[in-house]
Amino acid sequence: MPLDNSAHICTAAAVLTAAVCYQGWRILNKPESKRTATEQSAAIVHGVTGLIGNTPLIRINSLSDATGCEILGKAEFLNPGGSSKDRIALYLIEQAEKSGQLVPHTDSCIFEGTSGSTGISLAMVARAKGYLCHIVMPSDQAIEKSQLLERHGATVERVAPCSIVDKNNFVNVARRRAAEYGADDKSGTRRGYFVNQFENPLNSDAHYRSTGPEIFQQTNGHIHAFVHGSGTGGTIAGVTHYLKQQVPGIMSFLADPQGSGLANKVNHGV
Predict the structure, then answer these.
(1) Whole-model pTM?
(2) Annotated catalytic residue: which of 74, 85, 129, 145?
(3) pLDDT over 90 for what percent of the chain?
């Protein structure tokens, strides 16, 4: 008796599932040192934080074909939080744990002043690792950002926009909230940790230790230039630092909007 379409589909699904399970078993039983990069990325990861990093490098066909150069894009949007900020969120929190500044599941809270992707990444990683998260952002930012942060479990405090030198600037408020948090906890276990992405040297170190090595390995060291935009400067600084140590003569370019303060600083020292 011939199988109907649903039976064919079920049979095919069963065969595919068995093949995937066998392939996973084969990879996991191979010593890690002998796994290919693809096999390593296919192995089981531990929680959402295990999905951070090891993003693919994609050939941009249109630009590559038009210029005669191999132009590649690092698909950082495939990190679980949607950006490269996942890397610094995980790295900074893990470093704080190693130094004893943070202990999970102690009602400790991570604080940061941010109007962008860093807050989303911090909220996601904090929840995964057993921390509270408090994000301070300017009130002129889209309300959808606050809503997304709240869905990740963060407390969001919106403050009036003002200069960084003002004590009520969103970054300064986050710093103050972290200092105040847990001040009445006599046990000392309930702590507030201020990430300070704009001035924390661990920001660039995260990319020196992860993004830079990934790019070098994915290109087999055949890379002549690195081009990147900048917010805090952590990604371009960390990646450039690593690649310049590995590839003599490589050039690094900051692609920034016209009128940018960073462009003036790099080009004119002002």
Answers:
(1) 0.79
(2) 85
(3) 67
